[in-house]
Amino acid sequence: MVIVLQKSVYKLEAIRNTIYWFSKDFEILLTEDENFFNISSDDFNETIKKDFIKSLNDFSLREQINIETKDIKNLVVSKAFYPDLIKFKDIGEFDDPINILKKNGN
User: Which InterPro entries match (predicted)?
Assistant: First the structure.
């Protein structure tokens, strides 16, 4: 059975993670052409295909969350290891880098 995936929808990293996860039980081959990834295995049936797609979507979501939270993770780690490097304002205080308060007469 072959699973055909659009390159514009799924990232190669998520596909490789999913293949790795399934490779303990199945021999899986990944090929690609200009627009599609082709995942093939003689061991796949409809149930396994459904589980593969479910895991692929899980890995894709994890990758997206990792990308979106990368800066926050780096900030937390930086603050933990270098507490004097990053200073936070007290609650209620903020910077006014473009002088909004002056423009509004405050």
Answer: HxsD
Q: What is the pTM of this model?
A: 0.68
Residue boundaries of the structural domains of the chain:
2-68
Where does residue 100 fall: left (phi above 0), alpha (psi -120 to 50 degrees), or beta otherwise? Answer: alpha
Which CATH number applies to 2-68?
Answer: 3.30.70
CB count in 10 Å sphere of residue 29: 11
Tell me which of 81 and 53 has the higher pLDDT.
53
Asked if residue 28 lies in contact with residue 39, where contact means CB atoms within 8 angstroms, the answer is yes
* Number of residues that this document lists for the chain: 106
